[in-house]
Specification:
This protein has helices at 10-19, 24-35, 38-53, 70-80, 84-88, 92-104. Helix 4 packs across helix 6. It has 2 domains: 3-53, no CATH class; 70-104, no CATH class. Helices cover 63% and strands 0% of the residues. It is mostly helical.
């Protein structure tokens, strides 16, 4: 691996900008020194091989959970009497069901 093989992601570039012109050159120099370290080079090769072995794997991400709107969360907390933690653990469908159940039961 050579210095020309190093590719910085946008967040990494943003980090370098944020740390400023006094520190960024020292960080970049350390990165270049790592490229000369045989152990780091071997580690990079192992990571590359592992990546190649797992290229065919696909992990499905769970569907994004719709958040409970603030107004409904407030009603469940202040009117129904649930804790914030209980409401935070709910998905939108369950929160609506609990609110409807609360309204349908006479008190």
């Amino acid at each position: 691996m050579t210095a020309s093989d190093v590719v910085f992601t946008d967040p990494a570039i943003d980090d370098l900008r944020r740390i400023g012109p006094d520190v960024a050159p020292r960080i970049l120099k350390r990165i270049l020194l790592l490229l000369e370290n045989p152990e780091v080079v071997r580690l990079g090769e192992v990571v590359d091989r592992l990546g190649a072995l797992t290229d065919h794997l696909h992990v499905d991400e769970p569907p994004a959970r719709e958040p409970v709107p603030d107004w409904l969360a407030d009603r469940l907390i202040y009117t129904v009497g649930m804790t914030r933690e209980e409401v935070a653990a709910l998905d939108l469908e369950r929160a609506v069901d609990l609110w409807a159940e609360f309204h349908s039961n006479p008190r």
